[in-house]
Amino acid sequence: MLVRALLAIDEGLPLAFVGMILGELWAATAGIEFFIVISRAMKNFAESTAMSLFGFGLFAVMSFALRSIVNGLSSRQRLSAYLHPVTR
């Protein structure tokens, strides 16, 4: 059950990030996207690009962590399924 929940979160993560980006672009008064919008308006493209890469990096790290947890849990479940008949 936990593996399915983590897989569902991993599947919904890209949509959540797109929603977060769009929501912050229109209504942000603070945060990463607000900084990106303000730095682009002030023609600080280096800062804007750096914060964009930080946001995408955060997304990649979260997705990798979720997939690693799922792989670890599913391999333990497979191992316990193989060992369960032996230990009986």
How would you summarize this macromolecular structure in one to three sentences?
This protein is mainly alpha-helical and 88 residues long.
Write a structural description:
Helix content is 90%, strand content 0%. It has 88 residues and is an all-alpha fold. It has one domain. The longest helix is centred in the C-terminal third of the chain and has 43 residues, at 45-87. The mean pLDDT is 79.
Low-confidence stretches: none
Number of strands: 0
Could you spell the SSE succession in H and E letters? HHH
User: What do the pLDDT scores average to?
Assistant: 79
Shape field: elongated
Which structural traits does this protein have?
single chain, 88 residues, mainly alpha, 3 helices
Topology:
Elements: H1 2-27, H2 32-41, H3 45-87
